[in-house]
UniProtKB/TrEMBL annotation:
<keyword id="KW-0812">Transmembrane</keyword>
<dbReference type="GO" id="GO:0015288">
    <property type="term" value="F:porin activity"/>
</dbReference>
<protein>
    <submittedName>
        <fullName>TolC family protein</fullName>
    </submittedName>
</protein>
<keyword id="KW-0998">Cell outer membrane</keyword>
<dbReference type="InterPro" id="IPR051906">
    <property type="entry name" value="TolC-like"/>
</dbReference>
<keyword id="KW-0732">Signal</keyword>
<keyword id="KW-0472">Membrane</keyword>
<dbReference type="InterPro" id="IPR003423">
    <property type="entry name" value="OMP_efflux"/>
</dbReference>
<dbReference type="GO" id="GO:0015562">
    <property type="term" value="F:efflux transmembrane transporter activity"/>
</dbReference>
<keyword id="KW-0813">Transport</keyword>
<keyword id="KW-1134">Transmembrane beta strand</keyword>
<comment type="similarity">
    <text>Belongs to the outer membrane factor (OMF) (TC 1.B.17) family.</text>
</comment>
<feature type="signal peptide">
    <location>
        <begin position="1"/>
        <end position="19"/>
    </location>
</feature>
<dbReference type="GO" id="GO:0009279">
    <property type="term" value="C:cell outer membrane"/>
</dbReference>
<dbReference type="GO" id="GO:1990281">
    <property type="term" value="C:efflux pump complex"/>
</dbReference>
<dbReference type="Pfam" id="PF02321">
    <property type="entry name" value="OEP"/>
</dbReference>
Length: 481
């Protein structure tokens, strides 16, 4: 029996541990979202694209190297690629080329393309940071919504236990003839209303958990749950700072302004690249080529039967005597193709030089590009100013919201204290028969509503503080809860 008891205890502990493992803390939810959110992954892909652009821009400083080769068989009348003579035959030919090119000067466009690629990468990093901030806020809001719904449900269940106790007590007093039966019916009606509200709150908890799970890309909705860490209102030094200090920190740390600043820098770099089209380009090149064919050719060789011949070459003017000379007598003979290695060596050639391209007139293409780039620079500057104004407005709004939420929370606390005293007073009077069940039920409803209002004000204030912390420059994973 002792072994069985130990086994049962170990199984219960294992089940309890598994259940705890399935409960998510807020920090775990935020980290999971940062690691798995689709929007963040897309932003990371955008960052990889900018890295590829940077690699391409870096490659513009390196020479280009290309090699080509061709192999063909010709039948009929064709030109021999070695002798360049027309032949009517069938032969195999091959050619090979190696070309090297290097841009010496292109109006500094390659330099500015690399600078632009670096700016684009930095801008993508800022966009990724902003996406992480937004996702962290979405997760925090969804998490606090679950906590709010759970707190409301726990409060409703707790109050319903009081109602059940009142039903039992009232039923006993009605049976004893101390209270009228109408009081019992009123309490039972209150219980039915509370049970209906509990069902609604349970549904709200389930829906908010599913929403959070979907935000985290978790498919197991049934076992997904969060840890109710009982967040309390704590003193936050950021909320005590002047709004001007928070706005200054936001302008220095927030990605919205940094993205707009990078867009201005990119637009200015695009203008410089467009202006480079007015300048000449200078490039150097080097090429090597060779060829081979297995075609036969005709060569002039001495005639073995008649190696020389006597031919007149002139006349002596004074005597009229004919002057003759001896010349080699040659005949055409078909010869086979030289070996492959020998032809590759004998038939090769190189070319090298410089190429200068001076733009004179291109249909105003460069000029129009420069004009568009200037307009885009002005547009991004306006967007930067607007981003600063929007950020200042958003920070100020968040600051006012946080202050207002704190006041709402403090007012809800006082309201709950008052309603709790009123409810306790009504309960005491009802227990001794000095008030009826309807008045007691109304006092209890007001107390329940005050509890729900306090929960909502509490988590709303916590969320508003998180918004301020992000604006102040705190990393999403370092948010204080």
């Amino acid at each position: 029996m002792k072994r069985i008891g130990i086994s049962i205890l170990l199984i219960c502990l294992a089940i309890s541990t598994q259940a705890q493992d399935k409960q998510w803390t807020l920090s775990a939810c935020v980290q999971h979202a940062l690691d798995n959110n689709i929007s963040i992954k897309q932003s990371e892909l955008d960052l990889k694209v900018t890295e590829a652009d940077k690699l391409s821009a870096t490659g513009n400083f390196l020479p280009s190297l290309n090699a080509s080769a061709s192999l063909s068989e010709n039948t009929g009348l064709s030109f021999n690629p070695v002798t360049n003579n027309a032949q009517t035959t069938t032969f195999l030919s091959a050619t090979g080329n190696v070309n090297v090119g290097y841009t010496l000067f292109d109006g500094l466009r390659n330099v500015r393309q690399l600078q632009r690629a670096k700016l684009s990468k930095l801008s993508a990093e800022y966009r990724l940071d902003k996406m992480k901030d937004d996702i962290a806020l979405f997760v925090a809001n969804a998490y606090l919504t679950v906590l709010n719904n759970k707190a409301n449900l726990a409060s409703a269940k707790s109050q319903n236990l009081v109602t059940i106790e009142q039903i039992e007590r009232t039923n006993a007093l009605v049976d004893a003839g101390t209270l009228p039966r109408g009081d019992l019916l009123e309490i039972e009606a209150t219980n039915a209303s509370e049970l209906q509200n509990i069902a609604i709150l349970e549904n709200a908890v389930t829906i908010s958990l599913i929403s959070l799970a979907q935000l985290l890309l978790i498919e197991d909705y049934q076992s997904f749950d969060i840890v109710d860490e009982g967040y309390d209102i704590v003193l936050n030094e950021i909320s005590e700072k002047p709004v001007s200090e928070i706005i200054t920190a936001a302008k220095e740390n927030r990605s919205e302004v940094k993205i707009a600043e990078q867009n201005v820098a990119i637009a200015e770099k695009d203008l410089q690249i467009a202006q480079g089209g007015f300048l000449p380009t200078l490039s150097a090149f080097f090429g090597y080529n060779t060829r081979y064919t297995n075609a036969t050719s005709f060569a002039q060789i001495p005639d073995p039967d008649n190696p020389t011949s006597i031919q007149p070459i002139g006349v002596v003017q004074e005597t009229g005597q004919t002057v003759v000379g001896e010349f080699p007598n040659t005949v055409a003979r078909e010869v086979g193709a030289l070996p492959f290695s020998e032809q590759i060596y004998l038939n090769d050639g190189i070319s090298y030089g410089l190429q200068l391209n001076i733009p004179i007139f291109n249909g105003f293409a460069v000029k129009s590009n420069v004009m568009r780039s200037k307009v885009n620079v002005e547009r991004t500057k306006y967007q930067l100013e607007q981003a600063k104004l929007d950020l200042e407005s958003n920070v100020y709004q968040a600051y006012v919201d946080a202050k207002g939420s704190l006041k709402a929370y403090e007012a809800a606390e006082k309201a709950l204290e008052s309603q709790e005293l009123a409810y306790q007073y009504a309960k005491d009077r009802y227990d001794v028969g000095l008030t009826n069940a309807f008045d007691f039920s109304q006092s209890k409803v007001r107390f329940d509503n005050a509890t729900i209002s306090l929960n909502q004000a509490k988590y709303d204030y916590i969320f508003k503080l998180k918004v301020l912390e992000l604006y102040f420059g705190i990393e999403p994973t370092d948010l204080k809860f």
